[in-house]
Amino acid sequence: MDKRSKFSYRYSGYCVLLGCLVLLCLARPVAAQQAVVIRSSDFGEHNQVFLDDSVWYYHPGELPGGNKPAINTSGWDTLRHTIFGKINAPRRWQGIGWFGLWVRADTGLVNKKLFISINHDGASELFLDGKPIGGYGKVGKSAQQTEAIRAPRELIPVWFTDTRPHLLAIHYANFFNVYSNFSGFQLTIGDYVTRAKRAGNSKMLLDYLPMFASAQLILGLLHFLFFLFYPRQKLNAYYALFVLLIGINGIAVHSFYLTPYPTVQYFADFITAVCKVLIMCSAVILLYVLNYSRVPRWRIIVLTGVAVFYLGGYIFKYWVLRQETWHNYFSVVYVICMADGLWSAVQVIKRGQKNAWLIGAGVSAVILVYIFAWEDTFLVWPYALNSMRLFVMGAGSLILPLCLSLYLALDFARTNQKLAAKLREVEILSARSLAQEAEKTALIATEARRLEQIVQQRTAELKAQTEELREMDAIKSRFFTNITHEFKTPLTLILNPAKELLNTPAGDKDYLKLIIRNAERLMQLINQLLDLSKVESGLMEVNPALVDLVALLKLHVLSYQSLALQKGIALHFTTEQETLWMLIDRDKMEKIIHNLLSNALKFTDNGSVEVALCNHPEAAGNSFSLIVKDTGTGIPANKLPYIFTRFYQADPSDTRNTGGTGIGLSLTKELVELMGGQISAESVEGSFTQVKIVMPYQPAAAPPENSAGPVTVEEFIPVTCEEDVLAADKSCPLILLIEDHQELREFIRKSLAGRYRLITAADGPEGVAMGIQHIPDLVITDLMMPGLTGYQVTETLKKDERTSHIPVIILTAKAGIDNRIQGIETGADAYLTKPFEQRELIAQIENLISVREQLRIHYKNSDLWLKNTSELPSIEQDFIARIRHAVESHLNEEGYSADQLAVDMGLSRTQLHRKLKDVLGQAPGELIRVVRLQYAYNLLERRAATVSEVAYMVGFGSPASFSASFSRHFGFAPSKVAVSGS
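== histidine kinase ==
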């Protein structure tokens, strides 16, 4: 082989090697990127796969090589979501960029016709392996050069000839941000044939919307012409407005889904939002006009207020804030307003107006169409049936116009018939004398006045019924609030002790007693509700049994003796005879006695409770009278007639001294009347209350002496103080607990003992006084308490500069969002609902105290006298400013001490000390010294005087003590300040 041949051979080898390296480099980016595998099994019921949440590669702006399509994604950023807005836009996104996705088809999709669909509000160019396959709009480098087009229902056909990874690159621009949360795009891929067929069906259904809208516009214009020819019939004008609005809304909905222009879609979205408000108002007004001869002014005011609120809100949302979401609860308002309109239609039907049922049917259909189709409140329509939902919405919106048109047509025909009859009658009556005409006129006027009186009477009756219903609704709302509170407090005292028992090896009998007492309280409440339900449904039966009423009363009075002793009340029972055997329902009689005794003791704080049993001679036959009289708070005269009303409470406020549900006396009255008796009450507010029962009975002979006697009742077990609870060390944080429920207060005290020092108060005023006196590290308060509510306690403490820094935790059974917001607005730092977890309460306490300690360390280490104090709350800033002014006013007085500073601040020495230690971590004396030294530093830095002069100016007795204090505080002698300043 000659040299040339060898050279050619070597050259060929080098070329082959170089070509392999080039192919390896070209294949390297593909292999290095993560490809998305497209499988037909992933298409699902929608015959497509969403790719916006895949592994994308992103390059902001233009590619280095110009506008050439991308063939690899080397060096590009990774991106997980292509649906982004202004807030979560990709890094360095300026409105234009390249997006790449490596896709690979499985063997079942090779050479099968697929589609790619892209949904966006900008402009796009799509490339597959560097070859253009489609796009929408015109991609430009600025907003002026870009033309935005949306085509969410357009399909781009695509085929994959192998199973290798292919690069799907998208050159995308969106400078407009029509929707602030949708600046990116959404990409899907799926089976072309199935999707194209479904898209065609969807398009066909959407094309019906303009037809429905046209029919509605024609009906509206027709009735508007009727109004022009007959202006006295204003119903045609309201009807025309209503139908025209429905037609405009149909056109806006059609434009929203099918327009290729994002700005038109945004405007159509705004129009549909406005139209649904106007449609609701016009429909309700139309129904009012049908029902009322003169629509009540308050209804017009309320409806106008609702319309103005929502129209203003939508204008502010779409054109000021430009936000997509607004939780405005319009569906609830819509249903309420339309239900009120339906009530007007029902009134028309009740008056016997012919064919008025058409109106009720139409209104009911509109409400159902709005709930199930327009808003889809119950999520009936899946994504694939959205076009069918819009078709049902468009067709359903025709029901009420058609019903009203038919009603108006029939009414018009009846009116014509009546007019014809009247004309014939007038022709006959015209031949009669003028006297008869005058008499007829007088009769007509009298009839008109009578009708007007009837209308006024019915209106007054409706108003009275409305007020009665509103009062009943308020009473029931208070009942449910009270019953929730009555349930949740015992539940707290059952769940937490039960959990404590699980965590302790040996059971604590006190915890068991606490659980049993509160479980019995819950059972009593539940039994009262069940008994009330049985009485109301007529299922309660009377089961007579042999009972010695005197012994039964003695047993119940004895069971309440312990509670009466606890409250310092004298409890007496008097009777005219030793025994009184009768046949009577023992269970119901025990419930009556229990309710009367518990009520009397509950509302009596001092004095006595008298129970008297005697025969009632005035009544026919055998009957007895039972009288329970107490010297308690009494009942106001205006509330006394309602005390036996179900759910009624004389004091429904959150600050009442006693709890309750409002069903005890109501149930007592039902049981007394069920057994043929009568119950009555007398009371003088602040003096006494007396309840008297007169009940017939069937006498019976006493049983033999060896027979079983009455069953004894359980002894009342008072709540005792826990003396064995560990006391916390004096260095532990001090916590103030304000809780009117004794058992819950004792349980929390026992739970926190050993960790914290604890002081307790039984009501709001006492808690505020103790908070100001002791300045605790944290306050725990109940919400519903006597004197002051938890909100008022929190607000009082937070507005007082002595206690404004103290964290507050509110405990309550009210778990509504409005209650939480009110608690936060009054300054509460935490809000726990009953029944609460003991661990959660302890965690909240530790967290709040820890945060307060970190703030205290931060402010102790920072120089608040030179730096801005804006980080502190305004009341703390004012407090520090007052202290600084007080100290600076006595700067040159050597004897100015912490006691004088406390007097100047209007606080005691203890209050000032705890306040400053909690807020700044410094004692008053230390704070005075720091202010003096800092003021001296400023004087020395400005060279305003010598070191000795400055020492006397800031209140030091000698330059030597000043120099020593200065050196300890700043770390250098005061003479060095003047030297460094020069």
